Amino acid sequence: MPSKFKLPIIDVSPFTTDSSDRAAKLEVAKQIHKACRDVGFFYLTGHNIPQEIMDKTLKLGYEFFHLPDEEKFNYSITKQDNARGYQRLGEGVTKYQKDWNEALDFYKPVPRTHPLALKKLPIGGENQWPEKPSEFRAVFNEYKDYMLRLGDQVMRAIALSLGLEENFFNKFLDDCFWVMRISGYPDLRNASGKDRVGFSLGEHTDYGLLTFLNQDDTKGALQVQTSDGDWINADPLQGAFVVNICDMLNVWTNNIYKSTLHRVVHKGDSYRVTVPFFYEPNYDAKVEPLEACLQIDPVKHHEPIIFGEHLLKKVSGNFEIIDHNFL
Ligand SMILES: N=C(N)NCCCC[C@H](N)C(=O)O
Ligand SMILES: O=C(O)CCC(=O)C(=O)O
Ligand SMILES: [Fe+2]
């Protein structure tokens, strides 16, 4: 990559430990503000999540994806609600092209009375937890709990970074509609010549608030677009998460914070595994440009949007090749 730009590294320990003072928090908030304005991506350290569980999730993901196809197909999204479960290579689609990854998606469970369940919409079904490897469900459940706490802590930092009270976002997050994905990437070079295969994962933005990416040590795969239009690598940094700002924060901040385009191109002999955790608002959160942000730019760049509706629209378009001649 030609660009010399490097993603900033932000230590959020003042928000993850009890003993911290306000000055230390404000200093972190300042760094976050800059990172979210400039590129919308940063490395996050000081998160207090044990390295062992981060490594364990990657290892379990690798093991699951190396099970025979028949075993993996037991959990196919098509056996549930077309969203929760296993997607084979090429089943996911971004911008009319097949993604060359396989993945397992888990969402916050919904009660049978939830509109998604009542209308039998995507995401309205139940999570499909693999029986193999045997610890899979327990480890990922524990991981999810860690990530929910971290998401809450980083959202406090985001609130301060916008000049708001630390707990400003709480009422939008107390029923966080989390999404946890385990993604496996074989060598993209082996897919060349196959019909409509694009990238390992096509360029896109994420849908909610914050994505926390836990990735194995494969380099050169995840690429992030800078404001100059260059693509830079977001290579793994031991012990850190790669964090990015997603669509709802872009709306809330009236475009001050960037929901940055990113994509994956994995051309290498190794089989790459990542575990992105999507920390999201409540399903029915109404998101619209904040007063504090309209004071900086009074032109409203977004209409109010219900997070769940945005999510459903995005997810519904993720697994079907739409013929662009008809669009
Ligand atoms: N929940 C998230 N962000 N998952 C990954 C999405 C990958 C891009 C997606 N096919 C799209 O077209 O948006
Ligand atoms: O696996 C990665 O490196 C990125 C995944 C991603 O962007 C996504 O699933 O939304
Ligand atoms: Fe993404």
From TrEMBL:
Could you tell me which Pfam families the record lists for this protein? 2OG-FeII_Oxy (PF03171), DIOX_N (PF14226)
Q: Which domain of life is it from?
A: Eukaryota
The Fe2OG dioxygenase domain is annotated at 176-281
Q: What keywords appear on the UniProt entry?
A: Iron, Metal-binding, Oxidoreductase
* Alphabetized GO MF terms: metal ion binding; oxidoreductase activity
The record's listing under InterPro entries reads:
DIOX_N (IPR026992), IPNS-like_FE2OG_OXY (IPR044861), IPNS-like_sf (IPR027443), Iron_ascorbate_oxido_reductase (IPR050231), Oxoglu/Fe-dep_dioxygenase_dom (IPR005123)
Family the entry assigns: Belongs to the iron/ascorbate-dependent oxidoreductase family.
Provide the protein name: Clavaminate synthase-like protein
Task: Give the species.
Answer: Rhizophagus irregularis
